[in-house]
Amino acid sequence: MEKILNIGIVGCGGMGSGHAIALQSGTGNALWKVKTDDVPKFPGALTTDISKHLRLRGIFDIKPERRQWAQERKIPVYESYDAMLADPDIDAVLVATPNHLHKEQSIAAMRAGKHVLCEKPVMITSEDLEEVMQVSRETGRVFYPRQNREWDEDYLIIKKIYDDKLVGNVFNIKSRLTGSRGIPGDWRGIKEYGGGMMLDWGVHLIDRILQMIPEKVIKLFCSCTYITNKECEDGFQLHMTFESGLTVDIEVGTCHFISEPMWCIYGDRGSAVIHNFQLDGKMIRLTSWEDKDAEPIAAGAGLTKTMAPRSVGESVEERPLPRFDFDRNTLYRNFAEVCMGTAKQIVTQEHALRVLRLMEACFRSNESGEAVLFEG
Amino acid sequence: MEKILNIGIVGCGGMGSGHAIALQSGTGNALWKVKTDDVPKFPGALTTDISKHLRLRGIFDIKPERRQWAQERKIPVYESYDAMLADPDIDAVLVATPNHLHKEQSIAAMRAGKHVLCEKPVMITSEDLEEVMQVSRETGRVFYPRQNREWDEDYLIIKKIYDDKLVGNVFNIKSRLTGSRGIPGDWRGIKEYGGGMMLDWGVHLIDRILQMIPEKVIKLFCSCTYITNKECEDGFQLHMTFESGLTVDIEVGTCHFISEPMWCIYGDRGSAVIHNFQLDGKMIRLTSWEDKDAEPIAAGAGLTKTMAPRSVGESVEERPLPRFDFDRNTLYRNFAEVCMGTAKQIVTQEHALRVLRLMEACFRSNESGEAVLFEG
């Protein structure tokens, strides 16, 4: 094995073609509709040049139009997935097929001696993942969950606020993502293919919360929506209670024509909000709990003193959200280095298993209408 | 009894003094710190001149400074609550004392032949309210819950959107009110006086939802916060599931330095938001489900098509929130007319009982950590 890992992509749809562009351009930036040469690098000095770690060796897809798309971009195309696995030049496979194929294809790759970077949800069930983990142990091959949203800037800002107690002791976090287009109209709306928004954006939003908060999730309550799709949930609301009493609300929706803030974090010394992917938001921090007597504010046909806001400059200060540079290609790089044996796996199999188990608990809660004990 | 109802106020603190000003000025407008002559009328042509229905006969409060406040405003002051009840000129009593006194004082008033307008929470427990309702039946006196937030404009806008299906079939509603000053530092933070935010703003927010949605509440899940007060909840999150599957989330908080939208309403044909008491907000309505293929949007270190917003003018339209005139003094007027026997009671005892029972179910859910069946 040379120092640059040769990787093949199986499944060249939305995600697979994004990876192809990201890897071919060496930027890590998945811009579907741009010519490879025009794909811009991520901003910031810390982002890894992934061309020094990963080389796109080729793709395979069952659809002729996708094979043609790759050929037009001068990406080699394998005749079959078996042919890819039989190629001794291939060190690793990136699995980006519909969810129900991840298991079989990951196992086949590892049995053929290839490492695996597997799109999320890595598996449809925790049982499947346990089988795959067993194969990973048996073969000594890396199985790496591609849960990459731990390196989204919005999340990292909230994580910094949490870690550094910038709003004091945090008691509630809200993480939301909503759109208005329903579930994408392909296999993502079909149950047996692993459809539904829980196994879609749900994975990322849950993944990040479990990564951020080093506590057991004692209990959860989850209710799903089926507004635009009767078979698969097109959204859900999840309320989690952690060991310390901290609560987290996660909400995903696809019939939401107006979006509530993407992140809110509430501590005993302040609050912060991120409204959207453009990172509009702010942080309000307490400078002194004592304040001059509140002036009542007009509230409908009455008044309220209790809910009168504090004045910035009096007992609270407004601060911009913390911003900082980071390596936007951490996951690609870490995968390559783990395969080379030079780094520890950041997104572990055990972590992905915990995320899957939590999602299974969500479905149980939704079906029963009950709060469900998780790690309590 | 003459055509104008003579009313006495017992308890002249925050709410009681507001009522005193509202009634003395004849405006219905509770502006504490303004001279009575300067209290402006509510806007709109439909608001009742309550001076034609209610006359403030006097107040009683145990605190000398409040009696003095009333005297300075030329409001007659009774020597005792008993003296107020003994006055044959008094037709009705407005009970605005701390919550734990409502029961005894309401019963005493009805036994003395007076009608009662009782501040919210009308009672601390549903059992207490059942006793009071029994006395109301025995004495033939009106007992009227002063749950007045059903005539707040923000609520009426959401109710219109719901009633007229302006965003299609509604599947989720959020109703929130948050501040950052903790529970007011008087009896409101003490359990035995009926403190805590559930019996405070919780009453109003729950009241309105139960008034708006003509369905059984099958189940609820509630978790309270105790950030600024260990004895009484300083906030709560409540998730209610109605018979049709519609869900409603109510949130009250007092350690929230940033406020999320006050109202969100989501239907299968649109969404609407009201951000604050100033009624900033909008309505987005679907004009056609079909849309040109979504352009992926930048989402952290990746892209998303699923969550790409629709463009206004393409398949959705932006509309202002519906606005309309209404009688802001409906509750005062209805109380007076019910006492006169000329109208049906709008905020019924049975409705207040349902609100109290629902809040008791919330406390059970919070204590057990379980979802609780309510009317299911």
From TrEMBL, chains A, B:
Example of a GO MF term: nucleotide binding
Superkingdom assignment: Bacteria
Domain called GFO/IDH/MocA-like oxidoreductase: residue spans: 157-272
Gfo/Idh/MocA-like oxidoreductase N-terminal domain residues: 5-144
Pfam families: GFO_IDH_MocA, GFO_IDH_MocA_C3
Ranges annotated as spanning the membrane: none
PANTHER family: CONSERVED EXPRESSED OXIDOREDUCTASE (EUROFUNG), OXIDOREDUCTASE
Protein name, entry field: Gfo/Idh/MocA family oxidoreductase
Organism annotation: Acutalibacter muris
